[in-house]
Amino acid sequence: MNKDGLVEFLSSQRLGVLGTIAPDGSPQSALVGIAVTDRLEIVFDTLRTTRKYRNLMTNPAASLVAGWSGEITLQYEGEAREPVGAELAAYQAIYFETWPECRAHLEWPEITHFVVTPKWVRYSDYGQNPPLIQEFRFE
Prior knowledge:
The chain is an alpha+beta fold and 139 residues long. The protein has one domain: Electron Transport, Fmn-binding Protein, Chain A (Pnp Oxidase, Chain A, Roll), CATH 2.30.110.10. Helix content is 22%, strand content 42%. The chain has 3 helices and 8 strands. Strands 1, 2, 3, 4, 5, 6, 7 and 8 form an 8-stranded antiparallel beta sheet that branches. β5 and β6 form a beta hairpin. It is globular and about 50 Å long. It starts with a helix and ends with a strand.
């Protein structure tokens, strides 16, 4: 498994469980629709009224788990940011390739998008013997 393989696997997943840290330090999770860039960045949309938005604006640390059919999963830790301007438009284009129906969300007054840049990824395939478990670190 290499970075391209990780991108390919994540691209096959449409949903992930996003973990964030509340201002009081407690963990919070939410299911989100995801898209992935060729740089292994995760893109998702949310409303500015959600807990995840408040949490990420206070503390950009984010985690994600994807893949729960079969015995292959990917654990992901990174740092989230809310892109703006031309950068936002570029990430929205990537997101809408995966989620074209979500273009309609742009009409929602509180909609926004986040991009999570990877710091650590663990790919696990327990469907083979021995299991394939690989960890990756990113600068």
